[in-house]
Amino acid sequence: MNTLKRIDPRRPFTVTAEGLRRITLGATGVAGAQPVNLPGAAHHEPPKPRRTTAAPQRALLVAAHADRGALDEHARQTLAGAALIADASTEVVLLVFGEFSGDAAALGADKLVALPMFDRRTFAPLDEVNALAACVAAYAPMHVFLPDNATGDGDLGRRYAAAANASVATHVVELDGAHVAAYIHANTALAVRALPDVVLLAPNAVEPKLPFVGAGERVEWRFDGDAAVSRSAVRDLGIDEIDAAQLALEEADFIVSAGNGVSDVPAFERLASTLGAAIGASRVAVDDGRFTRDKQIGATGKTVEASVYIAFGISGAVQHLQGIKSCRHVIAVNLDASAPIAKRANLTVVGDAQETIAALNEAAAAARSARGTSTALLNSTAVAEGALA
């Protein structure tokens, strides 16, 4: 009998290729599961097999917005969920709103339809609904899957379901080929229903790592409403640019963070301003009084989800690593190549943090000077041409 208590009794499992994986005390496992590979073992893994090579007779459609050419973790989980319940005769079609430069096959998609005209910076909800409806008409999927988030996908799924008079399930935390489930009664009970037309998947309900790959075929598909994107009935007021320092760390997309290795705080803040990045700090730097408490990142501070996180002089205590676990790209600048932060980082610069900050500030100043010289030269040339004319 297992007497260990679960961390979160309201989320006791994750959907994986092996079924529902139980979560207990920070460890996950299923009966008969294989041992977890050690770091670096992925370099020696054999190529993953194709999920199916049978002629498709049915389709599942996954729609999501891309951010700088990639899908976020929630979107990848949604795509994996559709791939896990697809049978050998079902293809998984991925519809991406925006530019997409990722590997659709590795994410589990058999076909990729990208609509680059729908940029994240453009608000065109009615056109997106029409594009999704056109894709549904083209592929006639049995079900449509979207991430249930607050950044466009959840709204798009609800708008489409209402426009198409389709059945829909939101905040889905459990899914298989026959049913979905969501929490009700203040997350104290599960409501189960048959798989609806539209499934909006909650975050962290599916393990995005798949034991197979999809076909990954990119389909050149032109949406008939391309020209209508700029003539939408919705008026887009654009995006107001603000100083990154005014952003809450939880909302920042680019963060530079200082640790014990940063002694010249003004130089660090100058670099952050130049890069247009929000400022974070480790607990040590905050406790020393170099930064205010609201800048602290970690288990006892803020948890961030930046696309780019640069850590200057931070060793990477486990509490700090918990705070940056959802960051997409982590760059570490540290004298110690074996520091814990280096194991988490996608790129590690082995060097003195303060010297690196100074070098980056000098490079930025040189770039500004060169750009100013070029602008002045162009202006003087224009004046001379005007005088000659």
From TrEMBL:
It holds the Pfam family ETF_alpha. Keywords: Electron transport, Transport. Residues 249-325 form the Electron transfer flavoprotein alpha subunit C-terminal domain. The keyword Electron transport applies. GO terms for biological process: fatty acid beta-oxidation using acyl-CoA dehydrogenase. GO terms for molecular function: electron transfer activity; flavin adenine dinucleotide binding. Gene3D superfamilies: HUPs, TPP-binding domain. The keyword Electron transport applies. InterPro entries: DHS-like_NAD/FAD-binding_dom (IPR029035), ETF_a/b_N (IPR014730), ETF_a/FixB (IPR001308), ETF_asu_C (IPR014731), Rossmann-like_a/b/a_fold (IPR014729). Residues 34-53 are annotated as: Disordered. Residues 60-209 form the Electron transfer flavoprotein alpha/beta-subunit N-terminal domain. SUPFAM superfamilies: Adenine nucleotide alpha hydrolases-like, DHS-like NAD/FAD-binding domain. Belongs to the ETF alpha-subunit/FixB family. This is Electron transfer flavoprotein subunit alpha/FixB family protein. It comes from Paraburkholderia panacisoli.
